[in-house]
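[User] At your convenience, examine this fold.
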Amino acid sequence: KVFLFRTTITLALICFLFAVMSMGKWRFPARALWRQPLVLSVVIFCLLFLLTALVGILPAQSFWSNFERGEGAFQIMHYLVFFLLAIFLFNSEIEWRNVLRWNVAVSILVSLYGFLQWLGKLNIKTFVIATGGRSSGTLGNPSYLNAYLIFNIFFTVWLFYKEKNPRLKWLWAVCAAFQVFVYFKTETLAAYLGFAAALFLLIVLYLFQLYQQMRIYNTHKKLFVAMCYAGSVFILVIAGSAIYLFSTIDLYQRLQPRFWTWGSALAGIQEWPLLGWGSENFAEPFDKYYNPNHFGRESWFGRTHNFFLEYLIGGGVILLQAQLAMFLFF
């Protein structure tokens, strides 16, 4: 998948450059885009990622990564090209809607594979390859599948919201429901909590927006009160589901190895706080500051399994700041 992505992006860049040269005049909204802080923050993050990779403890590992991950600086540069091509070439909502339609169509196929894996768990024979009891789709890892699907669930809901055709609206609703079903069959705790937090935030923001509109148009407040009650019930259902999930999982046993790993990461960060160890190199500080409590359990970690610590150990304080800046400007 990584090689296919890199090849496709490289060919797209070549075609784009040929198109620019054949035009004789630049017709892309480059100046307006380069003025946007979000675009600048993405570019700066990718350049800093490359810099910290080259000055890390194992530059070759940081730049190329390996066949399992494929997430080194070389891949990040392809993401940057992909990002820039996307914002240069797709300038209207209609174009982006077409892109997202294709994206959702692919996500349905991936979800179907995950659904068939779930049927296999129920001892219903299917032709797909299963990876344990959890659905992982064609990505091979349940955590990858739920991260992939949460974006596509949002895309599908957005398409539903924008759709004017009633039949297509129903189609997007069914697609979203199917994606959500497969999303929960990944059985990933962090994914559940993230989904619940997102729903909670959406409800609060929607009620706030509704209240503002009622103030403007002097709408009867009984409707707003009813919506608040409905929202409160929904929030209670989400909270109850989260409590139930926590009650069925031994969180201490699941999180304890993570805490030991984070301790090794913090020790490594203290040694190289500014530029870090270079991406893809966490195995080095993990071994150097190995916690003996790991003995008899999973004793190798290529990742910190912590968003903040991952960027701190890979690129130090400057890379974490650049990463957070993208969210800030967004």
